[in-house]
Amino acid sequence: MTLAAYTPRSLPEFLNGLFRLALDLRWTWHHGSDELWRALDEETWDSTHNAWLVLNSVSGERLEELEQDPLFQQRYLEQLAAHHKFVNANTWYSEDCAGDLGQGIAYFCMEYGISESLPLYSGGLGVLAGDYLKAASDLGLPVTAVGLLFQQGYFRQAISTDGEQMEFYPYNDPTMLPVSPLRDEDDQWVRVVVPFPGRNVRLRAWKAQVGRCELLLLDSNDPRNEPGDRGITSELYTGDPEKRLQQEMVLGIGGWRLLRQLGRQPGLCHLNEGHCALALIERAFGWQEDHQSDFQTARTATRATNLFTTHTSVAAGFDHFSGSLLRLYLAPWLEGRDLNADQLLELGSERAMTGADSADQRLNMALLALNMSGRINGVSRIHQKVSQTLFQPFFRRWPIEDIPADFVTNGVHTPSWDSPESDAIWTRACGQDRWCRPLPMSCPMTAITDEELWEMRRLQRNRLIGYLRRRLSSQHCEQNPANNHAAACGLLLDHETLTLGFARRFTEYKRPDLLLKDQERLLRLLASRDRPLQIVLAGKAHPYDHRGKEIIRRWKAFSRRPDVEGKVVFIEDYDLGVANQLIQGVDVWLNCPRHPWEACGTSGMKVLVNGGLNLSQYDGWWAEAWNADVGWAIRPGATFEELRSTSEHDLSDARELFDLLEHEVIPGFYDVDEQGLPRKWLQQIRASMDQLTAAY
Ligand SMILES: *Cc1c(COP(=O)(O)O)cnc(C)c1O
């Protein structure tokens, strides 16, 4: 393949700066250039939010028109100047801690959720990685991220008329994605080679610019690879262990090789989950080469600067591979090294846990990462305890609280999740660049009146309802002639009604069906004349998760009941774009996982900046964030040691959830004074915004 295949279109000379703007994914959170993209091609921009695609699809005629348009010229020059200023600005890092991180941080993750226009993610892990990168850009941290460019990524969802989830894998044409081929100093497209059994696999390298940080992406779809190998980077999280190992080799080994090839020598390597653990072995190999040492010395030397973040809550969630598969695949890579496959297996062996002999020894990627890392962290205080319990078998004689797993509670990149209305309010209360430095923990909205705060909430809810109607109409309002058409199209959603949101992966432990445990009680809440409730749902079930799919069917069936009357809507194909709209508009965000399975949970953090309130299980981040002033907790103070049978547990949690809704949430929302303002509710919004937004 020649470079020419990826040479972008030509633009009028004057407009060449548009390339730079379109390829910096800063437009996903900083909306200064939105008007430019809308002016170029409104339809494409509104339907894809992909500036690069807009630039590549706009007609030559339109470009010539705009080149002559004074208003466009002015906006364009302003944005170019602003971008230049952004790139060259001082940051928190450059001013307060320049050089502390040496040559920077290498960050590895299997998935990245940066934008719905770069669909290389499945859920929370990837969205966290994306938010982390954006926050690193704001702070000016020298982070280089490494990941895979999936040709299909995770599946796209539609729901059939009988409630069945349908899965589609549209092709990610790299020329349409906001990425560019990664070029070296000689302008050559960078390629990386990883040895596989009997052949080398060639990887192409791409670059996504995320503000001041780079995300480097590898893909195996090089025409010179064998057909089977070209598809290694096709789907995210396939069930096939062989393909998963191949992907993890490409990510870990290929990823570290890529950094070395570019001459980068990061001082720190951060693994987000264990999928990329092989990077740490490859890093040690590199150190060996640079220092002419043996593997053990290299391991000791690099280990102190390897950091492993685990997100898993159950032992079965760790990635593992059979010894035989591993020996086959890793042999060519390990050839000539002083680390053979058995020694590598030993570094991540589950034998301690299973007591099995070496014949069916398996490599556990989390253990490998743990054994190669100086620091390990879970993602919330409760998850630290859970992680220590999971790792206990490998630290047999250690008291559990001494097992070296720390915790760093997740957070979100606030500027990616605020609405235009809340952005305006925060700017007035706390200044323009408030998220670009470590914030003072408090920024009370004393200058903002209750009227203004409530107006913000109403505008956000209105916009959400408009969005839901457009989405439902593009879902063909379910195409079912027997339907109540108005209900199916969201026309019965109401602007002044308390709106509850629930969106996440549909899987059993997240209990998306908790509200369905008592349908009659739910119906009463929805149908109330003077204090109604409406619910918006979204979420995908993993293709093999039959129970998750069953819950989607049950919600769809419930939402079609004539007595529900369009008060429950299901939005298909949950992704970053959908999440963004939901978390801006809902009044209350519901999260009800089975304790203590939610390692952290991040979607609830996204509503904070917009004045949404959380109603959530006392688990993950909410167990740290919750107090009675900021929202509602199901079974506050619960500890996981007291876990009884799960069904008993579910029923009592469902009861508690309904009690909270019936006695606190709903009355609170509708308790308005003569001016029509729910003063107590607004007090809660203030407390939640003030106490939690900066911290999370
Ligand atoms: C934030 C987010 C998630 C993670 O949310 P959880 O609360 O951790 O389940 C998953 N998917 C998308 C699209 C998101 O935006």
From TrEMBL:
Assigned protein family: Belongs to the glycogen phosphorylase family.
Protein's organism: Marinobacter metalliresistant
Chemical reaction(s) catalysed: [(1->4)-alpha-D-glucosyl](n) + phosphate = [(1->4)-alpha-D-glucosyl](n-1) + alpha-D-glucose 1-phosphate
Alphabetized UniProt keyword annotations: Allosteric enzyme
InterPro entries membership: Agluc_phsphrylas, Glyco_trans_35, Glycogen/Maltodextrin_Phosph, Glycogen_phosphorylase_DUF3417
Pfam families: DUF3417 (PF11897), Phosphorylase (PF00343)
Coiled coil: none
Database matches in PANTHER family: GLYCOGEN PHOSPHORYLASE (PTHR42655)
Gene responsible for this protein: glgP
Domain named DUF3417: residues: 11-118
Protein name: Alpha-glucan family phosphorylase
SUPFAM superfamilies from the UniProt entry: UDP-Glycosyltransferase/glycogen phosphorylase (SSF53756)
